[in-house]
Recover the amino acids of this structure.
């Protein structure tokens, strides 16, 4: 696999193949990110496209691979928030509806994984918006605490304590929902 | 109720909330050795906390796996079509023009060009001023 620094450098020179590869590499992540905020498949798909168009226009601003993902997720978050504002609605509270992952190894494992994934989404829906966003950024997209602090304009200590609280709440919700599931 | 539970109920109350607060740090390996040992001892004797710790540990591995939700096959093609329709140079030029310092930079470049022209040609400001005055007076004299 081509390393991200090389890929970004190629993209900056205007290589269409490199750009296509970059879109392929990040499409799942960006689409998942948008779906998390917008809770609607069509809206998330449109938002993800918009995010890539913005990325394309700002390719010149991209730096090294280490800072690329936080930078991209910041752009994606802004885009999703703009979209929510333009819709004039808060995200619906329905559980996120996702297809099974395309690379599932076997039907049995797929079934188990899908069940667990659905359970995680249901548990995430029980969290407050702020805690859910922290889990999204820290535990799902693996951003560093400093990066989250900069993105959400929160002190490092607040991010850390909120992150711990959110994950504890999520674990409780998963246990409770798993116990309630027949 | 065990002896320990009775004592705790009569004194500090159950230690579970205190243990729960440390589960994430425990799983992330951020607890100091003393806290680590205290949590380990608590979960050994507390089934609900043990189950919760299992969940916290499981989440650490499971949450990154739900980051990706691959869109339909047409997605990449749609993005490529849209980006082909919006050339990057247009956006770069637009952003360059919108910079607050652009007017200042333009004035600076203009002044430099004027200086260069004045230095290497027979262009003299005093002469120009005289010519302009003459032109204005001629215009005023005309009916």
């Amino acid at each position: 696999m081509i390393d991200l620094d090389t890929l970004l450098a190629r993209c900056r020179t205007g290589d269409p193949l490199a750009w296509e590869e970059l879109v392929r590499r990040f499409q799942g992540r960006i689409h998942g990110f948008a779906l998390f905020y917008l809770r609607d498949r069509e809206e998330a798909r449109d938002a993800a496209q918009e995010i890539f168009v913005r990325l394309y226009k700002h390719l010149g601003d991209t730096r090294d691979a280490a800072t690329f993902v936080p930078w991209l997720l910041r752009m994606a978050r802004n885009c999703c928030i703009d979209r929510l504002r333009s819709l004039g609605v808060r995200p619906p509270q329905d559980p996120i509806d996702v297809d099974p992952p395309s690379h599932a190894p076997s039907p049995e494992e797929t079934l188990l994984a899908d069940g667990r994934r659905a359970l995680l989404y249901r548990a995430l829906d029980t969290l407050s918006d702020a805690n859910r966003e922290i889990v999204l950024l820290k535990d799902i997209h693996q951003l560093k605490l400093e990066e989250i602090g900069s993105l959400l304009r929160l002190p490092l200590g607040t991010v850390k304590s909120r992150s711990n609280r959110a994950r504890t709440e999520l674990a409780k919700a998963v246990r409770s929902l798993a116990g309630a599931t027949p | 109720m065990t002896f320990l539970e009775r004592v705790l109920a009569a004194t500090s109350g159950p230690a579970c909330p205190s243990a729960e607060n440390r589960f994430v740090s425990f799983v992330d390996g951020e607890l100091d050795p003393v806290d680590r040992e205290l949590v380990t001892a608590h979960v050994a004797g507390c089934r609900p906390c043990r189950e919760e710790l299992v969940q916290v540990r499981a989440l650490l591995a499971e949450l990154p796996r739900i980051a990706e939700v691959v869109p339909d096959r047409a997605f990449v093609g749609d993005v490529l079509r849209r980006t082909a329709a919006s050339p990057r140079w247009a956006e770069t030029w637009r952003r360059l023009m919108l910079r607050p310092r652009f007017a200042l930079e333009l004035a600076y470049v203009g002044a430099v060009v004027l200086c260069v022209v004045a230095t290497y040609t027979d262009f003299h400001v005093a002469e120009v001023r005289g010519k302009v005055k003459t032109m204005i007076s001629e215009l005023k004299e005309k009916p």
Observations:
- DSSP finds eight helices and no strands in chain A.
